[in-house]
Each structure stands twice: as structure tokens, then as C-alpha cells.
Amino acid sequence: MLYEIRASDEEGNQSQSHGQSAVGSDAQAMAAGGADMAAPANRSSAARNSGLLSMEFGSSFASGTVPGAERAWDAVASSDVETLWSGDYYNEGTSPHDGWTDKLREECGVFGVFGHPDAASLCYYGLHALQHRGQESAGICTADADNFHYHRGMGLVKEVFDNNTLPGLQGTGAVAHVRYSTAGESKLQNAQPLVFKYREGDLAIATNGNLVNAPELRRKLERMGSIFQTTSDTEVLAHLIARSEHDDIVDAVKDALGQIVGAYAFLVMTKDKLIAALDPHGLRPFVMGRLGDAYLFASETCAFDAVGGEAVRDLEPGELLVLDRDGLHLDRFTEAKKRAICAMEYIYFARPDSDIDAINIHSARKRMGKRLATESFVDADVVTGVPDSSISAAIGFAEQTGIPYELGLIKNRYTGRTFIQPSQELREQGVKMKLSAVRKVVEGKRVVMIDDSIVRGTTSLRIVNLLREAGATEVHVRISSPPFQNPCFYGIDTPDRKELIAAQKSIEEIRKAINADSLHFLSQEGLLEAIGRTAQEENRGHCTACFDNKYPTEITDHAKAGCGCD
Ligand code: SF4
């Protein structure tokens, strides 16, 4: 097995290819990893015991490790119970808070292609459509008959890929990823897809979500000799696959998935297979599509629209789909558990033009706005929404009440990342660069301001004050979700519970804190009815843990809420 590793370039990007045609030697891998690379006949058993043969991260190279270490522990059982969690909350991933970026953040988007001659270009456009799910890094890995080719970098998709990098990504299969970096530091080695050299060949993995038992699994793996190169849950999965007693990759992936607990949408690619799997509760959105004879996978259907494809169906909880030269194979790695799709996807994260479970996001948000209007009508002159995610709900509120909808707030789309100024005065100025109140719309008016959520409350206060400074005589805040009181462990970057204003204050105290004339949140019942999923399933098939503290999986005190793709 030969390989080539290119060090990161000056922009911090990584481009690599490996396989028979590249340069490098197994001796280097042996030196790095200690596995028995010199004796092919022994490789498989040694590799199984020692973990991965190698992981490739540009300038670094690592393996997991102690030959002869015993495999296996009892699988960590996933429970099908609602967990009321009251433990300490440790979120190493929460980003620095500048008073403006007081929003929840989706942490990853995935895209996959099987059977298309221009797989890399499809990924490029698919990732563009998923850019709202992660802006810190992007990556594409393609597979042709012999090699993997990949390129990853820090930044937006348009910054990471160009005419020099895309043509090198040859092959008809691909996995791709956008990621939001939670720690605020450059972590190129965590950018996905992660590419591993595994005893049966090469493996590329891209994930969206978070494994709640990753810390326990990681400790066990490390005790058994595995050496980790990233803080990514994805690498935990790779080690579990590598240590599986099954030689067949599909069986090895099933074996690994059987040991993890959490919310995840996984794409695993070998040179001749693409495997897609969704967690047993279906917490994260994951959909299969087609483009001609090719198969597509994506976190959201908007990515299919971007490449001219069409959605076929959402993956079922616990489902595992395998694509190879014989076509599509439907399989499962476990029985489906109580369905618990993330309600915040409908409220805030997903793009309005996406559908989840055949429910259009814009339409669901409009219904939330209508329901909010019936639950908390207030006489006013104008309704406005905080751009972009609250505009649909604001339109619904306006339609229901007959109060005209107006663009009272405008987002400046071209500020990019602004330097956080040291003084409070300049920081306020930075806020105004990102959002403006339209004076001619709100001056002398009683304004209903619709937002999708309140996290710490600081953003709401600033926006209410913007409207007042622009002349609004009253500002009534309506929130198209219930109070956000609990952290998320399933791949959403949330602050500690003690920073969540709804966990610390009554609604009247929040109203005063954000300087609003009145404040109402959508009820949970109203939210679930507005989304419109079947009433047959418990909680209509949603996770609402951040509102009601009922987690669909076991949550250990060691669980971290940082992104699993971090
Ligand atoms: S806790 Fe909230 S944000 Fe996290 S998956 Fe559940 S509904 Fe979504």
C-alpha cells in the first residue's frame, strides 16, 4: 500500500490523494503506527487488534496502535427512555459570545454522491446549498477505481475550492462536508471528510451530529491502545470500524454503529461502496435523492435542488443504505426507536426551501406564526421578522392577524466576519453593521417583532433597542418556539444551562431584560401541531428536549454538547 501526503498549504488547505499511483511507503506508516505493516499476511489480524493502520491529516499521520491489545467491551447499550437530565453541563464547544452571535448553531452538513462522473462538482454545489449548516471548514473526498482524492480547508466553500482544486478530485463517488468550528480556533485536522487507511482499504467518513457516549468510547479505545489525532466523534467511529471482527465493511460499520449512542447522519465511503446511516431515533435530517442514474445523499433537500436532482425519501431511523456496483441495498443496523426528529430544524436550522419528512420548512414556519398569533394576539401597526429564519413565521403571524407584514429589519449580507471591537461603543456599532431597522417602516408604529428563539437574551435586547431607536413606539416580541431551557447534546452548539435566559428567568423577567412591551412564546403543543407531523407518534415524532428536558437517549454526565464533527 502506497500513499502520499501533502502538507497544508499557506491557506491551511489540504489536498491529498493516495493509492497505488502515489508515493510514500508502508515503512512510514509502520513507524508512525506500530502496526505490523511489513508482513501482509499478518496485517489483517494485527490491524484488527491495533485499530486503524493510519489516518491522514495532511502534514500529520497517525495510527492506532498497540499490537495484540484485546478487542472489545460490551456494547454501550442505548436506551429508549426519555431522560430528564439535571447534571452539570460541560460544553467545550460553545463559541466565544460577542453579544451578537447569540444564536444556536447547526454544526454540520453532509453531501454524498454515488455513480456520477462529475461527483466533485455536484458536491461543490451541494455544499454551497448547505453552507448555512457550517461556515468554518469544507471538504470533499472522491473515489475513483484506484484512489481517494480529497481537499479540505478552513473557510467557506467558495474560499476552500477553486479551479485548481476541483479538477483534481476525480471519481464517480464522493462524500463532502461543511462544518462549523465550535472552539473558535483553527482545527484543520478536524475538517471533514476524515480519511482513514483501514485494513481492508481506504475509508472516508463525513458526519452530522454528536455521539453522547463518545467520551466513554474514546477512553476505552485509548485504554486499548488507540491513538486519536482529532477530537472528532467521527474518529471514534473509525476506530470502532477498524477494531471490528468483521472483515466485510458493511458488517464492520453495523458493528460500530451498534456501540454508539447519539444523533448522527453518517456517510462512509470506500473505493467501491457508499454507506449511509441514520441514528435509531432519526434525530438529524438525512435524505436520499437521485440525479439520473446517480444516487445523492444530503442533510437537506435544498442541496438536491442546487444540482438539479430530486429528493426520493428521508432515511428511516436505524436504517443503513449501501450502494455498490450492484445498486442500492436496503438494510438496517438496528431496530428503529421512538422517532425524535429535531424540532429546531423546523424552527430555525433548516433552509426554508428544504423539506424534512415531506414537510416544507417555510410552510411549517408560517403555520408556527399563525398559531403564535392565535395564542398571543396583540393589537399593533406592523409585523416584522428577524432575518432570515423568522421571516416565514412573521408572514404567518401577519396573515393570521391582518396586521401588515413589513421589512422592518434588514440584514447586511456582506459584512462577513467582523473583528470584535474592544470597546462597548464600537461593539454596538458592529451590531448595526449586521442588522438595521428601517426607520420609515417602524417610526411612530407599534411593532410586533417575530423571532425564532431566545438563547441568552442579549440579541433580543439589541434588536428591540434598534427598533426603539428607529422610532417604534411599542415593541411586542413573539417567539415561534417554546422557551429554550436545556442544552442540546445532539450536534447543536448551545451554551451552558446557566447562560440560557429561559432557564434562569420567568417570562416576565425576560420581557424586562429584553426591554419589550410584551413577550410570548409559542406553546409546545402549538409548535408540534404547526409542524404538522402525524399525531400517531409520541410527541409527534420530535425531539423537544431543549424545551421540555426530555431527552430521547441516555445522557451521561460525561456527555459534551460540542459538535460531533468537531
Ligand atoms: S435538544 Fe433541541 S436542538 Fe437538540 S436535537 Fe433536540 S430539539 Fe434539536
TrEMBL record:
Keywords: 4Fe-4S, Glutamine amidotransferase, Glycosyltransferase, Iron, Iron-sulfur, Magnesium, Metal-binding, Purine biosynthesis, Transferase. PROSITE patterns: GATASE_TYPE_2. The active site is at 108 (nucleophile). Pathway: Purine metabolism; IMP biosynthesis via de novo pathway; N(1)-(5-phospho-D-ribosyl)glycinamide from 5-phospho-alpha-D-ribose 1-diphosphate: step 1/2. [4Fe-4S] cluster binds at residues 342, 488, 543, 546. Residues 26-42 have a biased composition (Low complexity). InterPro entries: GATase_2_dom, Ntn_hydrolases_N, PRTase-like, PRTase_dom, PurF, PurF_N. Pfam families: GATase_7 (PF13537), Pribosyltran (PF00156). Residues 13-23 have a biased composition (Polar residues). The keyword tRNA-binding does not apply. Its cofactor is Mg(2+); [4Fe-4S] cluster. Residues 108-326 form the Glutamine amidotransferase type-2 domain. Residues 1-42 are annotated as: Disordered. It catalyses: 5-phospho-beta-D-ribosylamine + L-glutamate + diphosphate = 5-phospho-alpha-D-ribose 1-diphosphate + L-glutamine + H2O. In the C-terminal section; belongs to the purine/pyrimidine phosphoribosyltransferase family. This is Amidophosphoribosyltransferase. The gene is purF.
